[in-house]
Every structure is written in C-alpha cells, then in structure tokens.
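User: I'm putting together a small comparison set for a docking exercise, and I want a reference complex before I start. The sequence is below, and the ligand is protoporphyrin IX containing FE. Could you produce the 3D structure with the ligand included, as structure tokens?
Assistant: Of course. I'll restate your input first, then give the structure tokens for the complex.
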Amino acid sequence: MNTVSQTKAKQIRLKRDDLFKNPYGLYKRLRERGSIYKGSILKQPGWFVTGYKETAHILKDPSFFTRIPLPESTEKYSHLKQIQSKMMLYMNQEDHRKLRLLVNKGFTPKQIAGFRPLIEEVVDFLLDELIVKEEFDVVSDFAFPLTSLVIATILGVLEEDRETFRDWAALLLQSIDFSRSHKTLEASDQLAEELSEYFSSLIVKKRAEPGDDLISLLIIENDCTEDELISTFILLVIAGHETTVNLISNTIHSFLKHPEQWEVLKRNPSLAGYAIEEVLRFESPTQLTARVAMKDTEVAGKHITCGEQLYLMLGAANRDPDVFDEPDEFLITRKQVPHLSFGLGAHFCLGSTLARLEAQIALSQFSKRVHTYNQTKAEIKWRPLTGFRALEELRITVQTSN
Ligand code: HEM
C-alpha cells in the first residue's frame, strides 16, 4: 500500500510557465505515468489525457460532454456566462446539432474555396509591403491582418470596426483559457456586455439591409434565437482570429527552427499542404480541450466517475510515439499526419477548411518570395496561455528570392 509521502511524490508538479514555455516536456512527464493521469496540474483537478487513442475515443464519445469553462458556482461574470452558454463549442446533443447545422451553411467547402482569390490577393499585398522592410513582426504585420480581414469579410463586419476586433479576440481567448485570472474574467465580462450590444445593433442593420455575408444569412434563415446568433458571432471572432494567426506564425517559426526543412520546401513547393499538416501536429495552435464524464466509465483501465473533468492534451496526443514515428521531429515529408489539432467528433472544428486554406496560401506565397529569413530577437516569447500555442511576436528580416 502507498504511504501518503509516496503518493505525494507521485504527483506531477507544474512550474508556472511549463505549459506555455515548453509544454512538450510536461507531456513527456505525464506520458511516463500512462496515457491518462489524475492530478491537480490546473486550477480544477481532473484527468490529464496524453494518449492519442484515448483522446480520440473521448472526443468521439457523446457521453463525454463539453461545458462552459467558467466555475458554475459563481454568481459573477453573468454576461460572459450567458454568452458562453450559447456558444456551440459548449453546447451538447440536440441544442448543439441544431446550431451547428445552421452555421455550417456559411462554411461549405464551396463557399470557403470562393475565398481563395481574396486570400491570395491579401497575402500578396501584405508581402509586397513587408519584404522590403528592414524587419517585421510575423504575428501582427502578416498573420493577423490576413485572418482578420478574412473573418470580418465572412461575417460582414463593418470596415471601421475591424481594428478593434484584435483586442476583443485576444481578451476573449484568455477568458476561455484554463489560465484565466479574475482580472481577465472581469474585463471579459464587461466586454461580453459591450459585444452583445454591438452585435445586437449590427443585427438590426443587417435585417434592414442584408448583405452577402454570414450574419445576413443566419438572420434570413431565422432558425435560432438572437442570443445564439450573438454568441456564434463572438465565437467566430475568437476562432477566426486567434487560432489561424497562431497556425501561420507557428509555421514560420517552425521553419526558422528547422532550416533543413525550409530547404526541402524550397526545392519542392508542392509540399506546402503537407507542411501545414505537420505544423498542426508539431505545434498545434490548440493544445488542450476539456470534457466532463456524464456517467461512470473506464478509460485505459482507469475508473472515471460521473462528473469528473478530463483534460485532453491535443498537443501531447499529436506526439504519441504509438502513432507517429519520431514524434518530436518536424518533418514535412510525412504523408500521413492524422493529428487531432482540429478535434474530432461532433465538435470537429467548423473552420478547419478555412484555416488550412489561409495557412497554405500564406506559406506558399511566403516561400516563393522569400529565400531565407532570420529572427531579429534572440528570445522567443509565447503568450502565457495553457490551451493555446501562441507566439507573442516573431520579428524577422528576410532575403528575397530574386
Ligand atoms: C488553425 C486554426 C484552428 C484550430 C487549430 C482550431 C481548433 C479547433 C478545435 C480543437 C476545436 C474543437 C474543440 C473541442 O472539441 O472542444 C474547434 C472547434 C471550433 N472551431 Fe476551430 N480551429 C481553428 C480555426 C478555426 C476557424 C478559422 C474558425 C472559424 C472561422 C473556427 C471555428 C470553430 C468553431 C465554431 C468550433 C466549434 C465547433 C462545434 O462546437 O461544433 N476554427 N476548433
């Protein structure tokens, strides 16, 4: 039988910045304890799942629910709670299915393919400006303006409001991250109220004068409540900005750290699509999601009690040695990359086709026009988020191809 001190010694201790400076070291330590481990690494205790097979199983099994990330017991943050409760990301079963089917109408492969000319034009325009500069920040000068314009165009947001979207998205992302502080929640709660008012008045405008955009489409369909509409738009603002910015920035960063792979891509530009899949696996923009067990069950021989929380470490599953050869290597020539970076099952990312298209065009055009590039600051800073792999900034200088 274990003594108390032996049990304590078995607990994995987390340094404050383990999860965002180098989450892969933590994942390794967790994996040494098995594919699923019970502990108190984050504020709320739960099961930490690092195995690919187990993560995929939980994502696909509807008896594990998603739920809003706020502590249910608190009376505070009512605006934020209200908005999160109507986001499809935190809905389950029939409520989720209904809203998802509706919003899907704006994200069909045909509609997304229709954005290709716009994305190509914006990427070209941005690169024209950036490659002649002495240095620039990949995150705020390249990735952000591209993704921001695309999601604002899809939604049909007024041009003058687009700039403010970045700050909104960044704050709201923090509010759904597991590292959120009370200060963040307070600020997000206030923002949630402002955003509800903003989108309410935009809905009135679009109702009077519909355009060729998602907000107008969903209003015309008239199949969901105004609260659901507002929460959906806010979710799309966060998802459309944050994750894809990180995918593009993580791509440029991964090649910077692996110049031999940059050479491979330069010699064979048709690998751009595979390269994006490898970045998704290797530096997944979303590292972590969570589920709650709705009944007593078993995962990898461990008993899970109804109501317990499970943290699915997508970034760890993507490096499971049982599934990927040389999992800690960045290799763009992999032909099979069944990563879990967009999730699986009912909540599989609604924007995956769009994110892939934006990132592939960004990388293809960047690699066509840039011969080599270097980082201008020695230190790379990751944003202090536990669920997302997000660079604070990435300043580079480029040498052009001709
Ligand atoms: C590289 C970029 C992206 C990554 C890595 C990513 C990742 C994910 C993941 C892991 C989930 C599932 C979460 C869970 O099951 O708990 C998800 C859901 C979702 N994503 Fe993305 N996403 C990306 C881009 C986008 C974009 C561009 C959009 C929209 C414009 C988007 C919209 C959504 C929505 C609406 C959901 C919720 C789907 C549902 O609950 O049915 N995502 N995303």
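The longest strand covers residues 288-293. The pocket of protoporphyrin IX containing FE is lined by residues 66, 88-89, 100, 151, 235-236, 239-240, 243-244, 247, 285-286, 289, 341-343, 347, 349-351, 354-355 (CB under 6 Å).
User: Thanks, that's exactly what I needed.
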